[in-house]
Amino acid sequence: MSLRNRNPSEPAMSDAEDTPVAKIQQRRWRSVFAAIYSARIFVSLYKKVINKKQILRTLSYIAVDIHDNSSDDHLPSLCVDPKTLTEVVREKSLETLSKLGGVKQIAAGLETGEKDGISANEAELAHRIDVFGANRYQKPPTKSFLSFVFEAFNDTTIIILLVCAILSLGFGIKQQGIEYGWYDGGSIIFAVFLVVAVSAVSNFKQNRQFEKLSNESGDIRVEVVRDGCRQFISVFEVVVGDVVCLKIGDQIPADGLFLDGHSLKVDESSMTGESDHVEINGSNNPFVLSGTKVMDGFGSMLVTSVGMNTAWGQMMSSINRESDEETPLQARLNKLTSFIGKIGLAVAILVLAVLLIRYFTGNTKDDKGNIKYIRGKTKLGSIMNSVVDIMSVAITIVVVAIPEGLPLAVTLTLAYSMKQMMADHAMVRKLSACETMGSATTICTDKTGTLTLNEMKVTEFWLGKEFMKDSISSEIVPDVHELLQQAISLNTTATVYKPNFRSLPEISGSPTEKAILSWAVLDLGMNLDDPKQNYELIQVETFNSEKKRSGILIRRNSESATHVHWKGAAEMIVAMCSQYYDRSGTVKAIDDEERTEIGNIIQNMAAKSLRCIAFAHTKISEDNEKVLEESRLTLLGLVGLKDPCRPGVRTAVESCIHAGVNIKMITGDNVFTAKAIAIECGILEPHEDMNEAVIEGVQFRNYSPEERMAEINKIRVMARSSPFDKLLMVQCLKQNGHVVAVTGDGTNDAPALKEADIGLSMGIQGTEVAKESSDIVILDDNFTSVVTVLRWGRCVFNNIQKFIQFQLTVNIAALVINFIAATSSGEVPLTAVQLLWVNLIMDTFGALALATERPTNDLMKKPPVGRSKPLISNIMWRNLIAQALYQVAILLTLQFRGKSIFGVDEKVKNTLIFNTFVLCQVFNEFNARKLEKKNIFQGLHKSKLFLGIIGITIIFQVVMVEFLKRFANTQRLNWGQWGTCIGIGALSWLLGWLVKLIPV
């Protein structure tokens, strides 16, 4: 603003002489008030500017440059009560909505433009969050680390072992004093705490990882309008006042009110339990509830409540997604664990009985050769201490026998594979899918976006029977051009946003819609805003997978006649037409010959892998204005859209076929397009007979159940299929004994995704309904990622088998050695602490080392493992029995001949047995890496975690033998003895190589 002093030479303004006196007085008072008010403003502004030194002085005037920065700090007033807004939608009260002035008044109060939405200014968005809250739910508190420690302690055998340790501690201190008496009991207590701590830390970390993945799966993308531009944001960033765009398959992110749209129907069963779809409109039911799903139509809504202020938010806050979901493999392993545990318990009871009988019959001697129990002479304290020691050994045998590591190994390998799959563009929503995918025998895949790039581009345009080359805009007659403009701009759910006339248009929508709009704007030079201003939309039929078309009924503002426009799959639209426009704009009838010619044009386009879309139009009388005419239409034109195959798809398909997995392509495109793409991807070979391999959905649907079962294995491509056809195929394949994985992206794919053994939804093009129904979300919509999931599924099963072989070898060896030693000599060579150390090696360390191996290419050279394949294969039995017999033979030889062979005392002999036993497990861990291959070192340099755990195990073993003599009840060994132990352990490598020569 600039203020100027009046020049004295300028004449002052005067009132007219005939103005009445009252008016003159009134005007003078106003002039005085204005002068005083202006002077005060000038003074305040003058002082403000003086401080900023922004005055420029000249002889004739003073200029004051004032910048008003108040607009930068402007925040919306938001003069609407949040509680009232929440209650209006939740109670669906039209009366309260009317009192508030309707949807438009509420939008004005929230400073929301119906077309432009809200401002994207961060300060304004933050202000809205402060006033109305964020779109997040309060979740139940997560399990703390202490709860995992408590769970680990809440094991019967661990509790009994601790009680025995405490009793041993008490009796030991009483007999030997506190200096030496605490060793036995204290060592067991420490070992138990170590096992519990490692188990708790491992479970705690996996729980946090599952929780993180759960949060990521809940972060859906929402399309909103801000500053007049459509954009995708996280559901957590939605604020009150946002205009959200809704289409089929969307999950509604917040409570709100209907703004505009057509045929909008939502599924409110998640909130009300009612399965019927509810129609949303501006007159009778404008209320949109969070958590519900759009089943038909499209539209936009005004967000009125978010987060905990919605009914969905309050419901979700009370639900905690369990991360300890038991998978089928875990259930099978729990049965195996229980069975082995019962055998271990039986052995422990036998050992306990034998040791007690030998003790009380005077057949047990101490280290000096003295009899431990003499009736009537041995003190009660000594008796109790010996009995507690015997019980500790028996209970520790149970601890070692029960393979707690099996469930842990499954959890570890699932958690590890989930994390790695996330990096490979696959998000696991259901744990069991990881392992089930390894058994998949058939993958039913979509074409568009999965096998292809989903980057559509119009490459051909036919007007009637004539191909239109370059500069087609000038070659189309004005009447046809106008009709095409109506068809393209009005019969679409996509939008074109152009900030200014110089910038390129920003087009949002599905790839097909974007390609057509881009072609219309850039190639035909159409202004797509004109029809929207000049025409009124009366009725809309949105595109769906069943009819494969969309239609609109429109009327020009100045006319009474109505127009119908259809767009969709070319042969279906052509079938509705009886006439067509030629190049000159003349309408010609379609007879049989013409229909055949147009059909050939469509076939030729499809043979080039083009998707064919047709436009048709008719003008109808006002009497039938509410009817979308479906016959006697006039064909406007045909467009061919090219969607190239994804790089690497052919290789991925070939790897699946080599792995014994069948690939079936199910697409909505016509037979010729489907064949062309299938050949390009390697699903079909050019020279093979297509009659049995390629089928249309309607043909498959009309088969009898017997015919379907007979043909199902031969079919590799299904064209013009509906979601029902896909579901029918999945059911038939499962009845035929297949393990089926299915990809899907649409709302109508949900039944097939649920029916399949593994449902794979698409992360980019997939609707929220499809994602909710799936087990795994393919984040990049790429078939190569589906193959990656297959590899990881096989890897999970393979890693579990490796660990089972390793653990059962330890179990069998430990049980047999302790049982034979106890029954023959009355003593067990391995103490409670030593057995707990072995338990830690094979349970936690073994699980970490073997359950986190990455998938190899060898996994894709084998046939699928199958649904009913036993966990322990014949190959595994061969390997583990050989290793267990070797270890038992060596350790029993040391037990009964060790002292004479090495010339050592009892303690050194027992240390040799303990050290040899542990080193045998370390070397056998290498054998377990490869169940069938003789080269067990292949890829070892990539398994850094495996090598690290082996190193840690060896270091701890050296420390226990050499430095923790009291704690571990060991004696130091010399270099020769260490070399002997290592040599005996290393021989298991040679044995493993020889055993693999035996065929099974």
Structure description:
- The structure is a single chain.
- With 1000 residues, the chain is α+β, with helices and mostly antiparallel strands.
- Helix content is 51%, strand content 15%.
- It is built from 35 helices and 28 strands.
- Strands 12, 13, 16, 17, 18, 19, 20, 21 and 22 form a nine-stranded mixed sheet that branches. An eight-stranded mixed sheet has the order 10-28-27-26-11-23-25-24, sandwiched between helices. Strands 3, 4, 5, 6, 7, 8 and 9 form a seven-stranded antiparallel sheet that branches.
- A hairpin with a 5-residue loop joins strand 19 (577-581) and strand 20 (587-589).
- Helix 11 (328-360) packs parallel to helix 29 (783-825).
- The longest helix is centred in the C-terminal third of the chain and has 43 residues, at 783-825.
- It is elongated and about 120 Å long.
- The termini are far apart.
- The model is unreliable at 1-21, 52-62 and 64-72 (pLDDT under 50).
Describe how the helices and strands are arranged:
Layout: H1 21-52, E1 55-57, E2 62-64, H2 82-90, H3 94-99, H4 102-109, H5 122-132, H6 145-153, H7 156-181, H8 183-218, E3 221-226, E4 229-234, E5 243-246, E6 255-267, H9 269-272, E7 277-279, E8 287-288, E9 293-305, H10 311-317, H11 328-360, H12 380-401, H13 405-423, E10 426-428, H14 432-436, E11 442-445, E12 457-463, E13 466-467, H15 472-475, H16 478-490, E14 495-497, E15 506-508, H17 511-523, H18 529-534, E16 535-541, E17 549-556, E18 562-569, H19 570-575, E19 577-581, E20 587-589, H20 592-607, E21 610-620, E22 633-642, H21 649-658, E23 662-666, H22 671-681, H23 690-693, E24 694-696, H24 697-702, H25 705-711, E25 717-719, H26 723-735, E26 740-744, H27 750-755, E27 758-762, H28 768-773, E28 776-778, H29 783-825, H30 832-850, H31 874-902, H32 906-929, H33 944-962, H34 965-968, H35 975-995
Parallel strand pairs: 11-23, 11-26, 19-22, 23-25, 24-25, 26-27, 27-28
Antiparallel strand pairs: 1-2, 3-4, 3-5, 5-9, 6-7, 6-8, 6-9, 10-28, 12-13, 12-22, 14-15, 16-17, 17-18, 18-21, 19-20, 21-22
Helix pairs in contact: 6-8, 7-8, 7-12, 8-13, 8-30, 11-12, 11-13, 11-29, 12-30, 13-29, 13-30, 20-22, 29-30, 29-31, 29-32, 30-32, 30-33, 31-32, 31-35, 32-33, 32-35
